[in-house]
Amino acid sequence: MDRNSDLIHQAEQTVAEYKDIVNQDKYRLHFHLMPPVGLLNDPNGFIHWEGRYHLFYQWNPFKTSHGAKFWGHYSSSNLVDWKEEKIALAPSEWFEKNGCYSGSAVEDNGKLKLLYTGNVKDEQGNRETYQCLAESTNGTDFKKKGVVLRLPEGYTAHFRDPKVWKYEGKWYMVIGAQSAQLEGRAVLFSSNDLEEWTIIGDVAGTNLNGLGNFGYMWECPDLFQLEENDILLVSPQGLKPEGMLYQNVYNTGYFVGKLDYQTGALEHGEFFELDRGFEFYAPQTTVDDQGRRLMFGWMGVPEQEEDKHPTIAQHWIHAMTIPRELLFRDGRILQQPVKELQDLRINESTLTDVKVDPQHSFSKLEGSVYELQMHVEEFEAQQLEISIKDSVQLRYNKKEQVFTLERVSLTKGAPEVRQCQLTNLTKIQVFVDTSAIEIFINDGQEVFTARMFPEDVSNKSIVFKVGDGHVKGSIQKWDFE
Ligand code: FRU
Predict the structure, then answer these.
(1) Residue 102, ligand 1, Cβ within 6 A
(2) Please, which contacts does 53-56 make with residues 24 or more away whose CB atoms are closer than 8 Å?
(3) Cβ-count burial of 190 within 10 angstroms (0-12 exposed, 13-18 middle, 19+ buried)?
(4) CATH 2.60.120.560: which residues of the chain?
(5) Which atom of ligand 1 is nearest to the CA of 58?
């Protein structure tokens, strides 16, 4: 057996060995994509190709820690029902022996082509990086074409995660990098055939374009247009917490600007953090045939309490977010759950004219795996609190204009919070899975993503409380299949 078939065979054996344990885990997710076994991280190669959505993912089938990554593969016709496909890439060749790292997919002459980073480390841990190409005619079997780009001068070997797109008949690729001066960078390249690449220049980075110190390495860049704007989505490493911002070990956000395709430079404004929760990183977008800009994020953060997740005992860790559509309003990205998720709704409860006051906390609804929405009509209280599964509290403090997500910490120590400034609350939409929660505020103006591990994952009351005054509105809840 050749090395590639051998690795794939070993991965399949491992899946077969542990899949029953994973499937019986109470924390197994119902509507979020998760690994069959092992560790899942970044979404890769997200594309709508020949009528199906394809989502690949960074995958270590053998362990619940990081290692020589494979590309796992799911596909779907509707973003809701996903099929587990054959393993797309295994780290079998010299140029990727320590991992087929993150990358993206494009359609070219009827073929599905993947550009990804080949990660190589020697015995001393010294890194090499190769940008590689693989292609498929049927969308499931990939043929490796090898290295298409080597490390250019001026950057360290922290140079990875190519995102490719076509603009005015030419291919462009943005890569996450670290400059020789150890500054985070996004770098632009161009090509006519996806095989020969020419460097154009730095798009943005630490100490460029008035940015100042903004991290020592930028991972997983994505560059795309939303309305008239060029958006650079990127995950910088090395940002220091700043008030309510950048609270996770590594963070993700975006710049809005105008890209100069001649020089590669993005004239941009400030950095906006994309998701305000505990677990969110390395998102990737694509456009589908309806022209929607869709995004998946990794519901995890590298090196952030990864050894504390209780699912490790059941041989799996991490998940994807739900797919979100990106819209643009008032200079900012709005993130909205894709409408297809409505197909999962069953058992609707609709309650109008609900009034929560200090004498009447509202707890008529309960659920285990569900979507919850509240449209706020009157907010005449200092603070509204919504408790979910005894392990997560959502609070909006109107006086301080602060939204808070509080959870029981993964180490089961003191409660911990993530927060953002919010001038008013008109709508809150919450997606609750067995061990995950995603909160969309005011139609995606702010989003919080987090894992949660309640002892009891069964039906639990959803409790709305105020300490003074009242909050009035309508509440809807749907169980999810
Ligand atoms: C981000 C990341 C990428 C890399 C991949 C390896 O989470 O570190 O930069 O390509 O994960 O799995």
Answers:
(1) yes
(2) 53/77, 53/78, 53/79, 53/288, 54/85, 54/105, 54/112, 54/139, 55/82, 55/296, 55/320, 56/88, 56/89, 56/105, 56/114
(3) middle
(4) 344-480
(5) 12
Q: What pLDDT, on the 0 to 100 scale, is given for residue 387?
A: 97
d(CA 139, CA 136): 5
Cα-to-centroid distance, 99 and ligand 1 (Å): 10
The answer to whether residue 208 scores a pLDDT higher than 90 is: yes
pLDDT for res 48? 98
Which token pair is 312?
Answer: 């490790």
Count of all residues that appear for the chain in the document: 481
Average pLDDT, the chain: 97
Can you say whether residue 205 is alpha, beta or left, with left for phi > 0 and alpha for psi between -120 and 50 degrees?
left
C-alpha to C-alpha distance for 452 and 457, rounded to whole angstroms: 10
What is the assigned CATH class of domain 344-480? Answer: mainly beta
Does ipTM come in above 0.95? yes
List the structure tokens of 162: 């190519």
Known active-site residue 307: no
Ligand 1 in reach of 101 Cβ (< 6 A): yes
Tokens 């200079």 label which residue?
331
**Is residue 58 in contact with ligand 1, taking CB distance under 6 Å?**
yes
Ligand 1 lined by 246 (C-beta under 6 Å): no
Q: What is the pLDDT of residues 397-413, one digit of tens each?
A: 999 999 999 999 998 77
Q: How far apart are the first and last CA of the chain?
A: 42
Dist. CA 4 → ligand 1 center (Å): 21
Confidence of residue 49 (pLDDT cuts 50, 70, 90): very high
Per DSSP, the residues of 405-439 read EEEE-TTSSSEEEEEEE-S---EEEEEEETTEEEE
d(CA 240, CA 400): 24
Q: Which of 203, 173, 172 is nearest to 265 (CA)?
A: 203
Q: Which residue has the tokens 């542990």?
A: 18
- The preferred substitution site among 41, 59, 234 for testing ligand 1, maximizing ligand atoms within 8 Å of CB, is 41
The ranges of the chain annotated as CATH 2.115.10.20 are 3-337
Q: Determine whether the shortest distance from the Cβ of 117 to ligand 1 is under 6 A.
A: yes
- Check whether domain 3-337 has CATH 3.40.50.11890, yes or no: no
Please say whether the beta carbons of 389 and 406 come within 8 A: no
| Ligand 1 atom nearest 176 alpha carbon | 9
- Ligand 1 pocket, mutate which of 39, 40, 42 (most atoms under 8 A from CB): 42
Q: Is the pLDDT of residue 251 over 90?
A: yes
